[in-house]
Backbone:
C-alpha cells in the first residue's frame, strides 16, 4: 500500500514533454491542489484499466494545461463549456471515459448553464469541480465561491453580501435535480481528506464505466498563490473556513439504483439511409404535359387567404404536380412581414423555363380566398392575368378591367361537396378546369397521396369537379 | 433520377446525413428552426445524435466536442444565435476542427425580425469571433444548392480542417423546389488527428492555446498558409450573360435570383446586363471580378443589408469601375421591376452618385 502510493500512475506522464521549459516539475504553484487531483484521477484510470479509452476535457483556468500531465486523449475547450463538449464527446464515443475537469470560475460562473443542463440531462460523464474560492489563472479575482469577507483583487474590501451576494454552493444546487446520480464534496487539506477525495474520484469514474449517469465530485482545493498564504496556512484556512461554507460529504448518491445510462446510437446500414430520409417515394410517376393555351402557360401564381384555408397545401399540390409534369417549379410560403393580420399566402411558379426569381411580385394568376387578399394583391396582377376569387366570402368584384376574372362561389360549392374546408379544392378545380395546366388524373393521384382518408378524398374530388364545371367555358 | 419537392431547410438535413454527418446540436430560432426540427426527426433514425442544446453557446461547444471526437457534425441558427457562437467558432478554427454551421439570416440588429436579410455577411464572412482566422462560407441560392453546398461544406471543412458555414436568407430556407439528392451516402473521412478514446489516438491533443509568442505566430502562419490555399482554388461563382455585359449586377442568395430575371428583362430591352453571383463568399471570387472589370462599364451590387459584401466587391474592382449599390432591408425584398428600374438607371449613367439627392429611391450608395 505504501509503495503503491509512490508509484507513478501510467496515465500520468513521467516527463512533461508538452510543457515548455523543464519537463520534470509541473506548472502549478507549490501547494496547489490541481497536481494532487490529477494524480488521483490518473491512478483511478489505471485501476479501471481505461487509459486508452479516457478523454480528458481541459478547461480554461490553471488546469488548461492538464494535458501536460494526463497521458490520455486530451481536448481543450472554451471557458465554462466543458460539460457541453463532454456531452457530445460521450455521445460520439459512448464507450470512452469522458472527464470534464473544471475550476469554480469555469463551472460555477461562466459555465453555469452548461453544467446545469448536462447534470439535468444525466449525461453519463464524470465532472471534477475544483473549488479554490478564487480565479487562479487570471491572478486571484473573486469567484462565485469566494467566502464572505475573503479579500481578492476584485473584492479588495472582502466579499460582502450586499455587493457580491453569497458564496455559491453548486453541488447542493445540482443535487436538487433529478438528473445527477452522484455528487460528493471532498477536500485536499490533510491525509484523511485526501484519502476520501481519492475514493470519491474512483467512485465517480466507476459510475461512468458502469453506465450509472452523471457524477460530480467537488474538490475543495488550496490555491496558496491566490490566497496569499503558505501551503500549510492554506490547508489550515480550508479546514477552518472553507468547510464551514462548503460542508464535506456525499450530497446525493443514487449510484446503486441507476444503470443503463449509456446512450448508444442505433446502428444503421448506409443502404437504409435513402429510405429513412424518405427519398425513395413509392410513386414518382411522371405525367404527360397537357396542351395549355398560350395565355395560361408558365404561370406565376399567388394564392392568398386566411391561415387554415389550405392555401399553402394548394400551392404545394400545384408545385408537386407541376414538377411531375416535367416543369420547373418553386413554392414559397408567406413569411416575414407578409404574415401579419392572419392572412397567409404562397407563391408558386410553374414554368418550362428555369425559374429566375421565385418571388411572385406580378402574378399572372391570383387565387384570392378572402377580401384582404383580393384588396392587397389585385393591383399586382399582370395585365391579361387571371383572378379567381371566392365570391361566397368576398363581397366585391375585382375592379381591374384588363384581367380575366372567375367569380367562384368556392366555399358554397365546397359545402355542397361535403365540407366548406374543401374550398381550396374547388379553386383548384376551377383553375385547372379553365386553364388545362395540368393533367387532372395526375393531380388526383398526387392528391390521394397527400390526403389522409378515403372520405376526405371523395370530398376533394367532388369539390374539384364542382370548381372545374363552374369554370369551364 | 427522381426529384423531391422539398424545403431548403429540410434539404440541408438530408444532405448532411447523406454526407456522413451523424450529430446535430442546435437551439431553435426562426427562420432556421425547420433545420433543427428535421434534424430532430432524421438524425436519430439515421443512427446519429440530435440534441436540443440549452443555448447556441452550448450548441457550438457540443459541435466542438463532436468534431474533436472525430465525427462529422453540425449546427444551424440565425443572426443572434450565430453571434453567440462566435467564440466557439474561433476556437474551432484555432483548434482546426471541421464542422458545418448553417446560418439562415434574419433581420437585425438586436431582435430585428424574422424576415429575410443578408446582414450577417460581416459576422459570418469576416469572422465575427476573435483572432486571426477564416471560415469557409457558401451561399446557396436554390434548394438544390442547399443540398449540394451542404455536401460540399462538409468536404471543404474536412479538407481544410476548418468550420464551413452555409449562409443564406430566410427565403431560400423556406422555399420548396425540386431537389435531386445523391443516390448514395458517403462515410466521413478518417480523422487520424481526432481524439477517439482509443489507443491509436491517445496521444492526440486538440487545443488552440500556444503560450509562447513564437509558437502562436507559427500556428497562425500555418493557418494562413491553409487559408491561402483555399483562397486560390475553392472560389465558386456563377457568371450569367457577363461576356459582353456593360452593367454587371452582383448579388448572392435570393437577390441573385431576382437579379437574374431582371437581367433577362433588361436584355430584352436591349440593355447589355449581366449577373455575377459569388457562390463562395469566402474565399471571395475577387480575381474573377477583377477580370470582368476589364470590359464592363459598371457594377451594380444589390444586398439585403446596408452594404456589407459591397466592400469586397470594391476591393476586387479596386476603383477601376464605378460600383453602385442598391439595398433593401428590414425583410423587404426588391421586386424584379424595382431592380430592373435600377439597372436601367445604371445603364444610362454608369455612375449614379450624382443622383443621390434627386433620387427618391430607398437607399442608393456608391
Ligand atoms: C470567455 C472568457 N472569459 C474570460 C477568460 C479569462 N479567464 C481565464 S481563466 C479564468 C478564471 C479561472 O478560474 P477558475 O475556473 O476558478 O480556475 P483556476 O484558475 O482557479 O483553477 C478567467 C476568467 C477567458 N479565458 N475566456
Ligand atoms: S494560482 Fe492557485 S490554482 Fe493556479 S496553480 Fe497556483 S495555486 Fe494552483
Residues:
Amino acid at each position: 500500500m505504501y509503495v503503491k502510493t509512490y508509484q507513478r500512475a501510467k496515465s500520468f506522464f513521467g516527463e512533461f514533454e508538452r510543457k515548455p521549459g523543464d519537463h520534470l516539475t509541473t506548472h502549478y504553484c507549490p501547494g496547489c491542489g490541481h497536481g494532487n487531483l490529477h494524480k488521483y484521477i490518473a491512478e483511478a484510470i489505471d485501476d479501471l484499466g481505461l487509459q486508452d479509452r479516457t478523454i480528458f476535457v481541459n478547461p480554461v483556468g490553471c488546469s488548461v494545461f492538464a494535458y501536460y500531465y494526463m497521458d490520455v486523449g486530451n481536448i481543450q475547450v472554451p471557458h465554462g463549456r466543458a460539460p457541453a463538449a463532454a456531452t457530445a464527446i460521450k455521445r460520439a464515443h459512448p464507450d470512452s471515459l469522458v472527464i470534464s475537469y473544471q475550476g469554480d470560475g469555469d463551472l460555477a460562473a461562466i459555465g453555469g448553464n452548461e453544467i446545469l443542463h448536462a447534470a439535468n440531462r444525466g449525461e453519463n460523464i464524470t465532472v471534477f469541480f475544483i473549488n479554490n474560492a478564487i480565479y487562479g489563472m487570471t491572478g486571484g479575482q473573486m469567484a462565485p465561491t469566494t467566502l464572505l469577507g475573503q479579500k481578492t483583487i476584485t473584492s479588495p474590501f472582502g466579499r460582502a453580501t450586499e455587493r457580491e451576494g453569497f458564496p455559491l454552493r453548486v453541488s447542493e444546487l445540482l443535487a436538487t435535480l433529478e438528473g445527477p446520480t452522484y455528487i460528493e464534496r471532498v477536500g485536499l487539506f490533510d491525509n484523511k481528506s485526501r484519502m476520501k477525495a481519492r475514493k470519491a474520484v474512483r467512485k465517480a469514474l466507476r459510475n461512468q464505466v458502469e453506465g450509472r449517469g452523471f457524477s460530480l465530485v467537488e474538490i475543495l482545493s488550496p490555491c496558496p498563490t491566490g490566497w496569499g498564504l503558505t501551503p500549510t496556512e492554506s490547508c489550515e484556512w480550508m479546514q477552518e473556513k472553507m468547510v464551514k461554507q462548503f460542508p464535506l460529504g456525499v450530497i446525493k448518491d443514487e449510484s446503486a439504483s441507476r444503470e443503463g445510462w449509456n446512450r448508444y446510437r442505433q446502428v444503421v446500414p448506409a443502404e437504409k439511409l435513402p429510405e429513412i430520409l424518405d427519398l425513395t417515394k413509392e410513386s414518382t410517376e411522371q405525367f404527360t404535359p397537357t396542351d395549355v393555351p398560350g395565355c395560361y402557360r408558365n404561370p406565376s401564381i399567388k394564392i392568398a387567404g386566411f391561415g387554415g384555408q389550405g392555401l399553402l397545401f394548394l400551392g404545394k399540390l400545384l408545385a408537386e404536380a407541376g414538377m411531375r409534369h416535367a416543369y420547373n417549379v418553386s413554392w414559397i410560403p408567406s413569411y416575414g412581414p407578409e404574415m401579419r393580420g392572419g392572412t397567409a399566402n404562397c407563391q408558386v411558379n410553374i414554368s418550362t423555363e428555369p425559374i429566375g426569381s421565385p418571388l411572385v411580385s406580378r402574378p399572372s394568376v391570383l387565387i384570392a380566398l378572402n377580401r384582404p387578399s383580393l384588396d392587397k394583391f389585385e393591383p399586382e396582377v399582370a395585365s391579361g392575368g387571371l383572378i379567381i376569387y371566392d365570391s361566397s366570402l368576398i363581397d366585391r368584384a375585382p375592379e381591374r378591367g384588363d384581367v380575366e376574372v372567375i367569380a367562384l362561389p368556392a366555399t358554397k360549392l365546397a359545402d355542397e361537396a361535403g365540407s366548406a374546408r374543401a374550398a381550396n379544392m374547388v379553386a383548384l378545380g376551377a383553375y385547372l378546369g379553365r386553364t388545362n395546366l395540368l393533367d387532372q388524373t395526375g393531380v388526383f393521384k398526387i392528391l390521394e397521396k397527400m390526403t389522409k382518408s378515403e372520405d376526405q378524398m371523395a370530398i376533394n374530388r367532388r369539390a374539384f369537379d364542382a370548381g372545374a364545371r363552374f369554370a369551364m367555358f | 433520377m427522381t426529384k423531391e419537392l422539398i424545403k431548403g431547410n429540410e434539404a440541408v438535413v438530408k444532405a448532411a446525413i447523406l454526407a456522413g454527418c451523424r450529430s446535430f446540436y442546435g437551439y431553435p430560432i426562426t427562420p432556421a428552426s425547420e433545420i433543427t426540427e428535421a434534424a430532430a426527426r432524421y438524425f436519430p433514425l439515421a443512427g446519429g445524435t440530435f440534441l436540443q442544446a440549452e443555448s447556441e453557446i452550448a450548441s457550438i461547444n457540443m459541435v466542438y466536442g463532436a468534431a474533436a471526437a472525430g465525427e462529422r457534425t453540425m449546427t444551424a441558427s440565425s443572426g443572434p444565435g450565430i453571434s453567440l457562437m462566435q467564440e466557439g467558432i474561433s476556437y474551432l478554427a484555432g483548434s482546426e476542427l471541421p464542422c458545418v454551421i448553417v446560418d439562415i439570416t434574419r433581420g437585425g440588429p438586436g431582435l430585428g425580425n424574422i424576415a429575410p436579410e443578408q446582414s450577417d455577411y460581416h459576422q459570418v464572412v469576416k469572422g465575427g469571433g476573435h483572432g486571426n482566422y477564416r471560415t469557409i462560407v457558401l451561399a446557396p441560392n436554390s434548394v438544390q444548392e442547399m443540398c449540394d453546398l451542404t455536401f460540399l461544406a462538409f468536404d471543404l471543412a474536412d479538407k481544410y480542417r476548418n468550420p464551413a458555414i452555409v449562409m443564406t436568407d430566410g427565403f431560400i430556407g423556406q422555399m420548396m423546389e425540386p431537389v435531386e439528392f445523391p443516390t448514395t451516402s458517403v462515410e466521413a473521412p478518417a480523422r487520424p488527428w481526432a481524439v477517439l478514446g482509443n489507443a491509436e489516438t491517445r496521444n492526440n491533443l486538440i487545443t488552440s492555446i500556444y503560450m509562447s509568442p513564437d509558437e502562436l505566430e507559427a500556428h497562425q502562419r500555418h493557418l494562413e498558409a491553409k487559408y491561402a490555399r483555399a483562397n486560390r482554388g475553392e472560389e465558386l461563382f456563377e457568371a450569367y450573360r457577363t461576356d459582353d455585359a456593360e452593367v454587371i449586377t452582383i448579388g448572392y442568395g435570393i437577390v441573385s435570383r431576382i437579379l437574374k430575371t431582371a437581367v433577362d428583362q433588361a436584355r430584352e430591352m436591349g440593355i447589355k446586363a449581366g449577373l455575377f453571383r459569388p457562390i463562395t463568399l469566402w474565399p471571395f471570387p475577387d480575381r474573377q471580378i477583377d477580370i470582368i472589370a476589364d470590359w464592363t462599364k459598371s457594377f451594380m451590387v444589390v444586398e439585403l443589408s446596408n452594404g456589407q459584401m459591397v466592400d469586397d466587391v470594391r476591393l476586387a474592382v479596386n476603383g477601376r469601375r464605378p460600383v453602385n449599390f442598391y439595398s433593401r432591408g428590414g425583410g423587404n425584398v426588391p421586386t424584379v421591376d424595382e431592380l430592373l428600374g435600377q439597372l436601367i438607371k445604371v445603364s444610362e449613367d454608369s455612375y449614379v452618385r450624382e443622383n443621390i439627392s434627386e433620387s427618391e429611391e430607398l437607399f442608393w450608395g456608391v
In short: The longest strand of chain A covers residues 343-351. The pocket of iron/sulfur cluster (ligand 2) is lined by residues A 28-29, 32, 34, 62, 132, 136, 223-226 (CB under 6 Å). The mean pLDDT of chain A is 94.
